[in-house]
């Protein structure tokens, strides 16, 4: 019984981590598009290079955070969450066993 | 490659802001009684990874901007700039330099995420680093940018 529960927990953590890492796809595409348009703006108005570059750096940093959130959540789900969930489950099972016997 | 003043300035601001938030995070660890030397090493690794990631991203963006050659605008188009037609609003195909910049930024993003993933995995699995202290500073640059925006808006409205 407990092995089945642990298996479900591990599967849930793995599937959740995979879903969280999907969030890393969008920022890469969006960042590329934003930089391409900003490069064209610089090409049309080379005198605005400094201000466009500053704005572009900040925009890219903001866009990238979405991917970082996904990465952090995915790593927590793979490396940290299973230990916590399985530990909680085992202590709960021991508590129930002590209560019923 | 020479680092532009804009890149240096933004990186310095992000490094300072992230450093302040990291010190605050360490203070929280002290307050809740979970502080030990692994928190310090973890916070240092997380701070270095966050600032390094930002600097590499800024360098890539700078390289993409530097490689962009001026685009010649036809005289007729600039002369009739007031008369906007549907054809003007249509999306123009990207120039070769812009396409190259886009590909460079996408490649850089993939490699940086891979590097951050490796650092985060090392930080979580190795016993010398506290896992939360490694992961939380990675999210600080976004907070610093948000705080900067709020402060700038407040200063502008105060003037």
Topology diagram in text:
The complex is a heterodimer of chains A (101) and B (159).
Chain A: H1 2-21, H2 25-44, H3 49-100
Helix pairs in contact in A: 1-3, 2-3
Chain B: H1 5-31, H2 37-66, H3 75-79, H4 86-89, H5 96-125, H6 131-135, H7 140-158
Helix pairs in contact in B: 1-2, 1-7, 2-5
Describe the protein in words.
- The complex is a heterodimer of chains A (101) and B (159).
- By secondary structure, chain A is mainly alpha-helical.
- Chain A has helices spanning 2-21, 25-44, 49-100.
- Chain A is rod-shaped and about 80 Å long.
- Chain B is mostly helical and 159 residues long.
- Chain B has one domain.
- Chain B contains 7 helices and no strands.
- Chain B is globular and about 65 Å long.
- The model of chain B has no long low-confidence stretch (mean pLDDT 84).
Order of helices and strands of chain B: HHHHHHH
Query: Structural class from helices and strands of chain A?
Result: mainly alpha
How far apart the termini of chain A lie comes to: 18 Å
Oligomer: heterodimer
Q: Tally the helices of chain A.
A: 3
Largest interface: A-B, 39 and 46 residues
DSSP helix count of chain B?
7
The coarse silhouette of chain A is: rod-shaped
**Number of E-state strands of chain A:** 0
> How many strand elements of chain B?
0
Would you tell me the overall average pLDDT of chain B?
84
Radius of gyration of chain A: 23 Å
- Global mean pLDDT of chain A: 87
Helix content percent band of chain A: over 70%
Instruction: Let me know the largest β-sheet of chain B.
Output: none
Distance between the termini of chain B: 39 Å
